[in-house]
């Protein structure tokens, strides 16, 4: 049975109490949960990466900078998407933060609709990343239940090899390959050869390194590295967007 995520929480870090309260009130008025903090330490004291959501934070925070918070989350393989706010236009910083995985970089004062749009985008990224993580975890658990010979066949199916090609590469008879494919289909609770092909392709792209002979199941390290998104996985279009947005805002302030 699929796991249901907890309700998403929008975290806000801003040392300016008035600005922090305004952002939190806006978020709550949109029927979203919101937790607010004045410092990075307060945030890290409560945050757990099992909680879905996103983080809206001021670039300049007294105890640690927005960049330091981003790096700390990235090192911990946190999937939390980030939205940065700043009172000053800084194109180079905006590009650096978005390259580091931030969803957006908004200059204060931003329009409520602009901030809410960025938040909903970040929450969608978080949901998609967590769903992909669950899918990968299920694939890894299924691979762990296979024998080394079955993993060999699954790997080659995922590479798009035909039965004759698999037979040649593994030095097997064609009938043996057909029987192993049929066994794989049954063992993985799949209903057809097409479903096996689809699963093998997912395994090839989402967990090909775990098709090796010495793989014995997903570990905590595997799970953590497979859940990463938002931090350390930049979106090129977002980088360009941040550069353009910050440049326009800087120009408008002249």
* Residues in helix, %: 55-70%
Which radius of gyration do the C-alpha atoms yield?
23 Å
Specify the biggest β-sheet. 5 strands, parallel
The number of E-state strands comes to: 5
The SS-based structural class is: alpha/beta
H/E series: EHEHEHEHEHHHHHHH
Helix count equals 11
Shape estimate: elongated
Q: N-to-C terminal Cα separation, in Å?
A: 57 Å
Which stretches of 5+ consecutive residues score pLDDT under 50? 218-230, 232-254
Strand arrangement, largest sheet? 2-1-3-4-5
Q: What proportion strand?
A: 5-15%
What's the pLDDT, averaged over the residues?
81
What do you see in this structure?
- With 254 residues, the protein is an alpha/beta fold.
- The protein is built from eleven helices and five strands.
- The chain has helices at 17-29, 40-46, 66-75, 91-99, 112-144, 148-158, 163-170, 174-187, 193-207, 220-226, 236-252, and strands spanning 9-13, 33-37, 53-58, 82-86, 104-107.
- It has a five-stranded parallel β-sheet with strand order 2-1-3-4-5, with helices on both faces.
- Strand 4, helix 4 and strand 5 (104-107) form a beta-alpha-beta unit.
- The longest helix is centred in the middle third of the chain and has 33 residues, at 112-144.
- Mean pLDDT is 81; it is low at 218-230 and 232-254.
Write a concise keyword list for the protein shown above.
alpha/beta, 254 residues, 5 strands, 5-stranded parallel β-sheet, disordered C terminus
Topology:
Blueprint: E1 9-13, H1 17-29, E2 33-37, H2 40-46, E3 53-58, H3 66-75, E4 82-86, H4 91-99, E5 104-107, H5 112-144, H6 148-158, H7 163-170, H8 174-187, H9 193-207, H10 220-226, H11 236-252
Parallel strand pairs: 1-2, 1-3, 3-4, 4-5
């Amino acid at each position: 049975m699929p796991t249901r995520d907890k309700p998403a929480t929008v975290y806000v870090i801003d040392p300016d109490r008035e600005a922090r309260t305004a952002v939190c009130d806006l978020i709550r008025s949109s029927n979203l949960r919101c937790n607010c903090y004045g410092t990075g330490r307060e945030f890290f004291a409560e945050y757990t990466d099992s909680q879905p959501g996103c983080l809206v934070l001021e670039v300049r925070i007294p105890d640690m900078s927005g960049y330091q918070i981003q790096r700390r989350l990235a090192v911990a393989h946190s999937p939390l998407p980030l939205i940065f706010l700043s009172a000053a236009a800084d194109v180079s910083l905006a590009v650096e933060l978005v390259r580091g995985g931030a969803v957006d970089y908004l200059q204060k004062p931003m329009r409520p609709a602009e901030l809410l749009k960025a938040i909903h985008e970040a929450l969608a990224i978080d949901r998609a990343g967590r769903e992909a993580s669950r899918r990968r975890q299920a694939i890894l658990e299924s691979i762990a239940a296979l024998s080394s010979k079955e993993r060999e066949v699954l790997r080659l199916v995922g590479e798009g090899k035909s039965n004759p090609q698999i037979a040649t590469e593994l030095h097997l008879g064609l009938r043996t390959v057909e029987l192993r494919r049929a066994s794989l289909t049954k063992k993985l609770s799949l209903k057809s050869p097409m479903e096996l092909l689809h699963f093998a392709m997912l395994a090839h792209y989402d967990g090909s390194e775990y098709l090796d002979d010495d793989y014995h199941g997903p570990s905590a390290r595997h799970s953590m590295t497979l859940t990463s998104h938002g931090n350390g996985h930049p979106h090129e279009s977002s980088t360009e967007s941040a550069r353009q947005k910050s440049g326009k805002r800087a120009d408008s302030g002249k």
